[in-house]
Design a protein that fits this description.
Helix content: 25-40%
Largest sheet: 6 strands, mixed
Number of strands: 10
Protein name: Class III extradiol ring-cleavage dioxygenase
CATH topology: Protocatechuate 4,5-dioxygenase, Chain B
Keywords: Dioxygenase, Metal-binding, Oxidoreductase, Zinc
Pfam family, one: LigB
CATH architecture: 3-Layer(aba) Sandwich
Cofactor: Zn(2+)
Shape: globular
Number of domains: 1
Radius of gyration: 18 Å
Distance between the termini: 41 Å
CATH superfamily: LigB-like
Family: Belongs to the DODA-type extradiol aromatic ring-opening dioxygenase family.
Strand content: 15-25%
Length: 283
């Protein structure tokens, strides 16, 4: 039987051939900043989720480059993945189908993007550039669905802290990249309480997951960044929704990169294995 991702690739190729994507131009203005719930390798078995991500990307002008911060690379001082778009991926997971350890996501060289990132950071900010580290699954899993042909240069930036204020400031420094056609992405998961899932019935959404998601959706709709920044004390469902916080905090980089005041649009919602897959774009 053909794997669902292979079937998706065929659908996506037909659509992108029949109705070609439109490349970003300066007349489009700044691209939005995104926060996406990236799932795990089995996202590439979920036809509806792959189609949703692909349709979301097609609604946007195709970026000149993508800068993505993932929950799965926590490193300070700041670091960039290799600019070599053909580097091996990071297979930072275990227990999945061997197929997922053979996948590749080859993209064009991202040297120009690395130079642009350096240009918007203060000279005092140490920025290590790896020569071999490829993208981790928080980056390549969703991008395989959003931009499956790998035609856009991609760099991954490490997440140096979980402190909302510092991530908002980092996002503000990256904001001007959007004016150059760079898609700035924070990749996490709106809820990520894996130890507390009802593993015997993953069709059931736990109360802590639904409550946290509804709280976040309301705060985002109101543009209440202070409420979101106080999630540890204010959000219902904590700490079950995020026993560790690295899947929520990329949201603050996205919000920092947004124009102020930003307009939040929910691109995807619903639940997967009981986890909230809410994903947003902020203009």
């Amino acid at each position: 039987m053909t794997h669902p991702y292979a079937q998706f690739r065929e659908r996506a190729a037909r659509l992108d051939t029949a109705v070609p994507r439109r490349p970003w131009t300066p007349s489009d203005g700044p691209l939005p900043a995104l926060y996406l719930s990236h799932g795990a390798p089995p996202l590439l078995e979920d036809a509806a989720w792959m189609d949703d991500l692909h349709a979301w990307a097609r609604r946007l002008p195709t970026p000149r480059a993508i800068l993505i911060v993932s929950a799965h690379w926590e490193s300070a001082p700041l670091a960039l993945s290799t600019t070599d778009g053909r580097a091996d991926l990071v297979y930072d997971f275990g227990g999945f189908d061997p197929l997922y350890y053979r996948l590749r996501y080859d993209t064009p060289d991202a040297g120009d993007l690395a130079a642009l990132v350096r240009s918007v950071l203060p000279a005092s900010e140490a920025l290590h550039e790896h020569t071999a580290r490829g993208l981790d699954h928080g980056a390549w899993v969703p991008l395989l669905a959003m931009y499956p042909d790998g035609s856009v240069p991609v760099l991954q930036l490490s997440m140096p802290t979980h402190e909302p204020g510092r991530l908002l400031e980092l996002g503000r420094r990256l904001r001007t990249l959007r004016e150059h056609g760079v898609l700035v992405v924070g990749s996490g998961f709106m809820t990520h309480g894996l130890p507390f899932l009802p593993w015997g019935d993953l069709s059931r959404v736990p109360g802590w997951s639904a409550e946290f998601d509804a709280w976040a959706a309301d705060a985002l709709a109101r543009g209440d960044v202070d409420e979101l920044a106080g999630y540890r004390d204010r959000a219902p469902g904590m700490p079950y929704a995020h026993p560790t916080v690295e899947h929520f905090t990329p949201l603050f980089l996205t919000l920092g990169a947004a124009t102020v005041p930003g307009t939040v649009t929910t691109a995807l919602d619903g639940f997967w294995w009981g986890l909230a897959r809410r994903s947003i774009e902020v203009a």
